[in-house]
Amino acid sequence: MQVGLLVFTTAGFLLMSMKMPQYGLIVTLIAQIFWVYSSYKAWKQAGQIAIFINTIALTIIFGYGVLNYWIL
Fold first, then answer.
1. What's CA 65's distance to the chain center, in Å?
2. Residue 5 in contact with residue 34, Cβ under 8 Å?
3. b/e string for 11-46 if b means 16 or more Cβ within 10 A?
4. Rounded Cα gap, residues 65 and 4, in angstroms
5. In 1-72, which ranges are continuous DSSP H helix?
6. For residue 38, which of 14, 23, 15, 55 has the smallest C-alpha distance?
7. Are 26 and 35 in contact (CB under 8 A)?
8. 23 φ/ψ angles, rounded to the nearest 5 degrees
9. pLDDT tens digits, residue range 4-32?
10. Which residues are CB-contacts of 56 (< 8 A; sequence separation ≥ 6)?
């Protein structure tokens, strides 16, 4: 789980910084799968609901970015 977080998040931000946001958003959206799972566990085990809410918000934002670049 932690490797997925590191690899996909880093790759997504790297692609965005290399002026390829359409690919960076897709990779970062894949990373959100790992973020949602990890933040949900943090919420249930340690009561950290803010990180879970933040992750859901970012997932929606990245999803809109993918929609904007690839569909609209």
1. 11
2. yes
3. bbeebbeeeebeebbbbbbbbbebbeebbbebbeee
4. 21
5. 2-17, 21-46, 49-70
6. 55
7. no
8. -85, -35
9. 999 999 999 999 999 999 999 999 999 99
10. 36
The two three-digit tokens of residue 53, written as one number? 């809410």
Residue 37 in tokens: 């799972």
Beta strands in 1-72 (DSSP E): none
Token representation of residue 49: 């609901």
Cβ contacts of 64 within 8 Å, gap of 6 or more: none
Cβ atoms of residues 29 and 63 within 8 Å: yes
Q: What is the pTM of this model?
A: 0.89
Residues 72, 59: Cα–Cα separation, whole Å = 18
67 token code pair: 């929609």
